[in-house]
Amino acid sequence: MPIVSAFFGIIITMYWREHGRPHFHAKYGEHGATFDIETLDILTGNLPRRARLMVLEWAFEHREELMQNWRLCQEYSIPNPITPLE
Questions:
Q1: Does 56 reside within a domain?
Q2: Is residue 82 situated within a structural domain?
Q3: pLDDT exceeds 80 at position 5
Q4: Which residues of 60-80 are buried (b: 16+ CB within 10 A; e: fewer)?
Q5: Is residue 85 part of a domain?
Q6: In the predicted model, is pLDDT for residue 18 greater than 90?
Q7: Looking at the domain assignment, is residue 49 inside a domain?
């Protein structure tokens, strides 16, 4: 599970050859959620409100990079790191 970014205790990962809609995973402590890259909707799981808002802000800024990484993961290539939220 390649980590593509980490900030404020939130870990963002993408997995190789996952199916379905383009998405990424966010983990914060014992909480985790899967986010649709195109709509930024939560597909599964949940995060505390503050962590969820930070993930959404970060993903909005980096949506194109997330899509590039999704394509890389579909080819079993290592995704590129993405600048964390500051």
A1: yes
A2: no
A3: yes
A4: eebeebbeebbebbeeeeebe
A5: no
A6: no
A7: yes
Minimal CA–CA distance to 2: which of 85, 70, 63, 83? 70
- For the stretch 38-82, pLDDT in tens is 999 999 999 999 999 999 999 999 999 999 999 999 988 999 999
Task: Give the chain's end-to-end CA distance (angstroms, integer).
Answer: 23
**Residues of the domain holding 49:** 3-74
State both tokens at 8: 């404020």
Residue 30 pLDDT class (50, 70, 90 cuts): very high
pLDDT for the residue 69 = 96
Q: Number of folded domains in the chain?
A: 1
Q: Which residue has the tokens 């980490």?
A: 6
